[in-house]
Amino acid sequence: MGPSGAGKSTLLGVIAGTVRLDSGRVVRDGRVLSAPGRLVPAAAREVVLLGQDARLFPHLSAAENIAFGPRARGVSRSKARSDAASWLERVGLAGLGDRRPGELSGGQQQRVALARALVTDPAVLLLDEPFTSLDPVTADDLRAVLRDQLAATGVTAVVVTHDALDAAVLTDTLIVVEAGRVSQRGPTREVLATPATAFVARIAGLNRVEGVARDGAWERAGRRVVPADAASRALLVTGGRVWAVFRPSAAAIGAPDGGGGAAAEGVGGWSARIVRHEATPSGVRLHTDEPPLFVDADLAAAARFPVGADVTVTLDEAAVRLTPDTRAVPHAGRVDSRRAAPSPLPPR
Q1: What CATH number does the domain located at 8-188 have?
Q2: Calpha distance 206→244 (Å, rounded)
């Protein structure tokens, strides 16, 4: 996961064998696939890349598209047909094997592409934002199909995505790449719950506010918060710069005079100013300048606090977690088309 231009697709190209390395190595099961002066051809890597477009052969039926890979590897026609029929059923397309791509919906085409990718039993499946071109309902359905088939086959998958839902549903390990470098890695849910950068916090839908650990509390602009969880309290002992991470629902906005209900009941009490309104499916997201955070509100609250309004921001201490400052920690690994260093991948 990472912002556009971070190097994610380049990394997939390195693994797939379409991007050469000047330094570093790509190793799978002890076999060196890429290194300076060495490049195992893409066709010999047991690696399959599935992108945003299905890229099916338009003149072949769905079943023939799936059977193409096994046939190219020397599998008999009858066995390839049998495998194709089995995979059509596994991805929810039983009975549609005779249809050509032009007779299938976008979601159905992606299901065929997934079956075609997995029918050859690859060692590694590379997925480059496979749901970007699909509507949300179709993407949810296909995400569930992919999750089930990854679990059933045991194939190692490397997924590139901008969607936290993709990461949470499909992956065990999350590696965040920013400006060609790994900025955070770890178990997916842990990374999303304790973002080390503003990008990860934004993707996870969390606020991340800088402060300092002082005298047993997190402090910013003279206001103090004492988190409830043990890990955050332990971090306070170290002192120095730390970050408060919390959901928008943990913050409340009220009038500067203390009016506004829930805003007067928390801790913090920062004076802030509304700088932006952002429409959401359930209401409006209010952004403040100092501290820089966002709070989800209904339309009535948005009308009460227009852009430019002075407000008071308070926090629910029990919902705040602290994370260490990582800016002084060296980044591990660099990924670009000239200098590529291997990053650990989830074991097969």
Answers
A1: 3.40.50.300
A2: 10
